[in-house]
Amino acid sequence: MSIAVMIALQRSGTHALGSAIDQHPEIAYAKEVFHPEYSQSRYGYYNFLPQALSKEPDLALPANAQRRYAEFMAFLKSRAEKPVTLIDVKYSSTHHFNGDWHPLSRRPQLLDLLAGQKIPILHLCRKNLVRVVTSGLLAEATSIYRVKSTNEIPVDRIRVKPEHFLARVRFLETEQTLMSQFLKTYPEIIELEYTGLFKGDGALTSKTARQIEELLGVSYFENYVPIYLKQAQRPLEDTIINFDELAVALKRTPYASMLSEP
Fold first, then answer.
1. pLDDT tens digits along 34-66
2. How many structural domains is the chain composed of?
3. Looking at residue 199, what DSSP letter applies?
């Protein structure tokens, strides 16, 4: 049994990609293992942690972060249902095994621990950060974060605060840039871009399938189609009530073109 990691920003398509990969007979997709929402899931960190601490409370101490990581990896392998378990880890969850004070600009200890075990990483990027922020705001406004049917896609439109929107885009750009730098020398990694994941019929592109096969050492991928659908399918001007106001705020920034890009 082996572990692999998919790492990404929030709202970058991990659930869609993961739900397609999970259909492969050799790979189990473990949704956001560090998210409290999945605390009772088969692979959840907050399913593992209370059990581990009840046996050894000192495992929570910063000095024992590396041992806590080892215990969590053992927990994941003990619950494996397929030869490969692909765990979903968001950038904002890479801090759980930092042993001390850790600024944003410092490489997360988790990456070093993963590299030490030669655990492969699938880095999923979404270049259009305007879309990422819009998707996040829409999900927050509707409390609907994932859908499996077009009937579930909310019709709500949102009004944004342009200055706050821009600040959020810039912060996500910093996060993604830093993580890309941290992963630049990672030994076993592929980087996939959101817009290149799926074909027009919704199935994985051949390029995506071949890259995943090679990284994870699994057999041929069929034309697997994700269970989860893209929520923000409409043009941004149909989703953002004050689109023109936002366009003015972004006009002289590197993000202006993202308003019309996928």
1. 999 888 899 999 999 999 999 999 999 999 999
2. 1
3. -
